[in-house]
Amino acid sequence: MSIREDQGRFRDIVRGRIKENFKKYVTHGEMIGKRENDLVKIPVPSIDIPRFKYGPKQRGGVGQGQGKPGDPMNGEPQEGTGEAGDQPGQHQIEVDVTLDELAAILGEELELPDIKPKGRPRQEATKNKYTGMAPVGPAGLRHFKSSYKKALQRYISSGVYTPENPVIIPQRGDFRYRSFKPVVSPHASAVVIYMMDVSGSMGEEQKEIVRLESFWINTWLKKHYKGLETRFIIHDATAKEVDEKTFFSTSESGGTLISSAFKLAKDIIDADYPPDKWNIYPFHFSDGDNWSGEDTRLCMRLLSEFFLPNVNQFGYGQVESKYGSGQFAKDLEREFPDDDRLVISKIENRDKILTSIKDFLGKGR
């Protein structure tokens, strides 16, 4: 079996392990802190790697000699500490998984439809497409199989090839290189704007739920929009734009005016993301408390007149808190009972994260 086939089998095994424990990976955030560019380090249960095993007639070899099991290999024996256990150990390894692979697993597990951007002109992106073979090219694009076949053809046609001594030595004229041409392909531009209530009723657990959801939402959207942009807004009675780290670590107190976040998101879209050129995904997370009915009415007006006509989808995630009333979701349901551009998801705890992700991404908008 070739190295490539071994690698393929290993990736299949890793993929199977991730799918077996998928809910755990979604609801626990350890791996999110282990991102590097487009790779994530994921701990998976130990995988048995194939190894040689001697039969009864194959004795001897490295490691034979005097001694008995348990003897130290070098130095003096040392006293151990602690007590012996009676349960098997849990051995884990960390493997690198691409965000595209995670997105594919997420899509399979939740049966998510692919996103088809609608009503947005696409920008053009240029990439190289390999189209065939050429007699010249850089060494990095040399194609071994084609070069060997060309050399073999030369040996046979010249009458010097002998099956008893099938040595083929390619010459410069035999070398073949992969050729490519630039191809212009459509490339959709997209931005996600995350807004979160950080007033005193939104505790660390609520923010961790938002953190986990935003990671998986971003992972899925990046599968469909290369170069996805992300913006972050926090608010209590006032709103401000922050970086990702601040978004998930800030603790505030005081009243809550949801409209402050909506207004700032509108300003960002007006300034940087023309709706006729961008696919726009605002998400707002809160425990459902708002300062007043008047502010809630202002939010409804902003949704009706600006957001819903201009964005692909507006997501509202209501994270349950013992201090929050949950009223804002009820107001949204009453105001927009049949508008599928608005998705409302109620997130009671971590176990509901997968359900909430499907709520948000299940329509393929």
The N- to C-terminal Cα distance equals: 43 Å
Write the H/E string, N to C. HHEEEHEHEEHEEHHEHEHEH
CATH topology label of the largest domain: Rossmann fold
- Biggest sheet features: 6 strands, mixed
Give the overall shape.
elongated
Strand content: 15-25%
What's the gyration radius in Å? 29 Å
Which structural class do the helices and strands define? alpha/beta
> Helix fraction?
25-40%
Number of domains: 3
Quaternary assembly: single chain
Can you tell me the CATH architecture of the largest domain? 3-Layer(aba) Sandwich
The fourth-level CATH homologous superfamily of the largest domain is von Willebrand factor, type A domain
Mean pLDDT: 80
Could you explain how this protein is built, in words?
- The chain is an alpha/beta fold and about 375 residues long.
- It has three domains: about 1-50 and about 90-110, no CATH class; about 125-185, no CATH class; about 190-360, Rossmann fold.
- Helices cover about 35% and strands about 20% of the residues.
- It is built from ten helices and eleven strands.
- The chain has a six-stranded mixed β-sheet, with helices on both faces. Strands 1-2-3 form a three-stranded antiparallel β-sheet. A two-stranded antiparallel sheet has the order 4-5.
- Helix 8 (about 295-310) links the parallel strand 9 (about 280-285) and strand 10.
- Helix 3 packs across helix 5 (about 205-225), helix 5 (about 205-225) packs parallel to helix 10 (about 355-360) and helix 7 packs parallel to helix 8.
- The longest helix is centred in the middle third of the chain and has 21 residues, at about 205-225.
- The radius of gyration is 29 Å and the shape is elongated.
- The mean pLDDT is about 80.
